């Protein structure tokens, strides 16, 4: 287990294209030339709380959601354009994931429900189809947060107490689940979660990585044939000398080499973390504070898409807070993301 080193600084007076890789580790930097990266703001609305980026290989599009903006979005790579939609009756949307076998169907998180919707990816309105399932029906102060699907089409997602109900570190009322589509039920994987957040699998699918933001770390688990998890191991603890950092770890993705990319809410950074050693290999700096999640996409799966938030939690968040960004030049490729199998 390793703690994150002190953050390096970035000259904010330079344009985005001049921001280069900052290598942060407890060892001297390598002698080879450091790779550079470029951060580009994409044409998209400024989200209140942008989240849940999901790259769809077939449609060459990035789907994501604005939790408290109550909207879903599709960034079309070929058009370099973002399409936006709302669903009547659903002011809070926690995630969006395509459904296998129907290119108009998606599941979204609504309160503590998984909801099936119909959307053509272009219209400004999507429509309710049915409720897939519900958890915690009596816990009205909870909502779903981050969710993803593994290579077998299985849904994983967790809950958290609503931010408006108090400090996120005060109570652990969330639970982490997987959904068994054949039996039509949710299976509990972890209890006493503060804020269920980033999740991803290695390319082989036998290792699972998970963030409870209130634990301020990333954990690794073994995955069995049923999709259940065991054998917890802390990959990295973001505390500095036992003290809370100035951010909380939020969403997360993984590349084909097994390195993790951890978004930091309040940290203006996506950390690239070696999943074996826990060392921070790279700090990817963004021009806004509240970095929420990341996903690899593009024709070659080598573009890191990053969502951010403009909602004022503790301090004002000036533009470009809430924007969608693309990070290129990282020299790595991501792993495919999958549609949910509801059959």
From TrEMBL:
Pfam families: SGL (PF08450). Substrate binds at residues 143, 145, 163. Its cofactor is Mg(2+); Ca(2+); Mn(2+); Zn(2+). Keywords: Calcium, Cytoplasm, Hydrolase, Metal-binding, Zinc. One of its GO terms (cellular component) is cytoplasm. GO terms for biological process: L-ascorbic acid biosynthetic process. This is Regucalcin. It comes from Anopheles epiroticus.
């Amino acid at each position: 287990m390793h703690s994150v080193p002190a953050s390096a600084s970035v000259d904010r007076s330079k344009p985005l294209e001049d921001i280069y890789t900052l290598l942060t580790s407890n060892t001297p930097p390598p002698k080879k030339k450091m790779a550079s990266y470029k951060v580009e703001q994409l044409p998209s609305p400024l989200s209140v709380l942008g989240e849940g980026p999901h790259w769809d290989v077939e449609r060459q599009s990035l789907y994501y959601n604005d939790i408290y903006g109550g909207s879903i979005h599709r960034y079309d790579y070929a058009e370099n354009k973002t399409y936006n939609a709302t669903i009547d009756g659903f002011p809070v949307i926690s995630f969006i994931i395509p459904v296998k076998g129907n290119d108009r169907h998606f599941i979204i998180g609504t309160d503590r429900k998984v909801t099936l919707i119909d959307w053509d990816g272009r219209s400004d309105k999507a429509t309710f189809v049915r409720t897939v399932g519900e958890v915690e029906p009596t816990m009205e102060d909870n909502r779903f947060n981050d969710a993803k699907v593994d290579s077998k089409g299985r849904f994983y997602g967790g809950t958290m107490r609503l931010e408006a109900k108090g400090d996120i570190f005060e109570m652990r009322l969330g639970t982490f689940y997987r959904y068994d589509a054949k039996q039509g039920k949710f299976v509990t994987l972890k209890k006493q979660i503060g804020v269920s957040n980033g999740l991803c699998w290695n390319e082989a699918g036998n290792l699972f990585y998970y963030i409870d933001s209130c634990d301020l770390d990333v954990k690794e688990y073994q995955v069995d044939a049923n999709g259940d998890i065991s054998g917890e191991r802390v990959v990295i603890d973001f505390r500095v000398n036992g003290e809370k950092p100035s951010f909380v770890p939020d969403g997360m993705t993984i590349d084909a080499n097994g390195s993790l990319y951890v978004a930091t809410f309040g940290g203006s950074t996506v950390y690239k973390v070696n999943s074996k050693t826990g060392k921070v290999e790279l700090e990817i700096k963004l021009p806004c504070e509240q970095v929420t999640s990341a996903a690899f996409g593009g024709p070659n799966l080598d573009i890191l898409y990053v969502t951010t938030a403009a909602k004022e939690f503790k301090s004002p968040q000036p533009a470009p807070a809430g924007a969608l960004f693309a990070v290129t030049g990282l020299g790595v490729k991501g792993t495919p993301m999958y549609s949910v199998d509801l059959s």
